[in-house]
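Narrative progress, year one. The postdoctoral researcher (J.K.) led the effort to move from monomer predictions toward full complexes, under supervision of the PI. The following entry was the first complex the group processed end to end, covering 300 residues in total.
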Amino acid sequence: MASSTHPCAPCAACKFLRRKCIQGCVFSPYFPPEDPTKFANVHKIFGASNVSKLLNEIAPHQREDAVNSLAYEAEARLKDPVYGCVGAISVLQRQVLRLQKELDATNADLIRFSSHQNILTPSSQSSGSSVQNAHVLPPNYGSYSWNYNA
Amino acid sequence: MASSTHPCAPCAACKFLRRKCIQGCVFSPYFPPEDPTKFANVHKIFGASNVSKLLNEIAPHQREDAVNSLAYEAEARLKDPVYGCVGAISVLQRQVLRLQKELDATNADLIRFSSHQNILTPSSQSSGSSVQNAHVLPPNYGSYSWNYNA
């Protein structure tokens, strides 16, 4: 059965790859023709074939999020070829550790003050309880977990 | 000029790609034969050709970091095909915002206590000054910046 071409303009992926944009093109909903850079970036970093395979393995309602996260990663890798978006993870991890340390110190000060005064305000109580939930670092990807000390 | 094969065992990349591992193989220093999964993951997500191109564009002393960050991203994408390591960025961003909010509330409490007592301890002063530096979120990658509200 011959596939019919797409009724509208070809998507950015098919235009880039110089091929017909057929009905049901897996790229078409996520790579509109007016944003050619989005596909060019994703293609340069991941390759069209890998992206197509990935999309076909994902439920349709999650494909937009998948494409956007791939576009984010691709743009990050083009801006920073060495660290890509792992650089942002590293910045954020250090920021979380620094904030946690500051919060612990500030809570210790508050506890010291309140033990002198025997007063605990509602906001200091809420800060204290959520400190215990703050050590939720992102998943550790086995032996390739990121330890970036720059 | 014929390239000579690598004197040791072929690297994981050449073994995976079933080709000779020649002297000066761009993959060899970063994909040792005893860790075949590292290359398999990177190959599945980025493709050997893209990784090879990327490595050739990067200074030799930065290639190890580049390969490790690619391996981290690849493993994250295999574990979470929809969000990949952008999921970790999202978790960390929310964590930074929550900690910052808690720290602001705790500092406000401390300021209230200290204005009653007219006392500022060294640790509360240091917490207060660094609050102003805490809003350093990772770079915003243009239109593909990540807004994940799950």
